[in-house]
Amino acid sequence: MAVILIVEDEIAINELIKKNLQLVGHQCTSVFNGETALSELKSHIYDLIILDIMLPEQDGFEVFEKVQTTPTIFLTARNSLSDRVKGLSMGADDYLTKPFEMLELLARVEAVLRRTQKNNQCFELGDVRIDFDSHQVFIMEQLIECTPKEFKLLEVLVNNRNIALSRERLLELVWGYDYIGDSRTIDVHIQKLRKKLGWEKLIKTVYKIGYRLEVNQ
């Protein structure tokens, strides 16, 4: 996956972001001020920066002016239109305001990495290979037929692997916020994916919550 630099001065938020990004397979480094971030970027190459604006000494805008070649997501408590326009007009790839849901941050990270071609367009687990560009699934290079909803559900599980997702959240991510229907449709599609991919032991049922794709890093 990607190598990501997290620049956030609030220790608890920094650690939470790092933990969740590592859960889905990314390699992360945490720093807590702009000066350290610039020093880190001079000595290492990163695929993405998650950059808080309100930093001690040098703010995020000042840091970004010096590292514009690296894809960046601004993360900040500032939610005024002028701040958002400034960040995006400077060339940032995305802008997320606090408080935020971790799943939204993970989704935005995946989107930026895909746009900048820094993320794998294929995911492999055992004999299963998923090609996100062609929307195809293979087992030992044999094509497995999946419906569009099955593939989308599979993509969500992969992108959020090792994270428990409620049935309601899965419905939102796969079927959309305006979907009106029974959450049991998730159970039906999960059972089909388990059977098709032989992932009965990998797609875990999380008691009273939903499901989790369990992948050992």
Task: Describe the 3D structure.
The protein has 217 residues and is an alpha/beta fold. The chain is built from eight helices and twelve strands. The chain has two domains: 3-115, Response regulator (Rossmann fold, 3-Layer(aba) Sandwich), CATH 3.40.50.2300; 122-213, Arc Repressor Mutant, subunit A (Orthogonal Bundle), CATH 1.10.10. The strands form three sheets. The chain has a five-stranded parallel sheet with strand order 2-1-3-4-5, sandwiched between helices. The protein has a four-stranded antiparallel sheet with strand order 6-7-8-9, with no helix packed on it. Strand 1 (3-7), helix 1 and strand 2 form a beta-alpha-beta unit. Helix 6 (148-159) crosses helix 8 (184-197). The longest helix has 14 residues, at 102-115. The radius of gyration is 19 Å and the shape is elongated. The N and C termini lie close together (11 Å).
What is the compact description of this entry?
This protein has 217 residues and is of the alpha/beta class.
Structural class: alpha/beta
Q: Could you give me the name of the CATH homologous superfamily of the largest domain?
A: Response regulator
Which geometry do the CA atoms define?
elongated
- Written as H for each helix and E for each strand, in order along the chain, the element string is EHEHEHEHEHEEEEHEHHEE
Oligomer: single chain
Straight-line distance between termini: 11 Å
Largest sheet: 5 strands, parallel
CATH architecture grouping of the largest domain: 3-Layer(aba) Sandwich
Helix tally equals 8
Q: Report helical residue fraction.
A: 40-55%
Give the strand tally. Answer: 12
- Give the mean pLDDT: 90
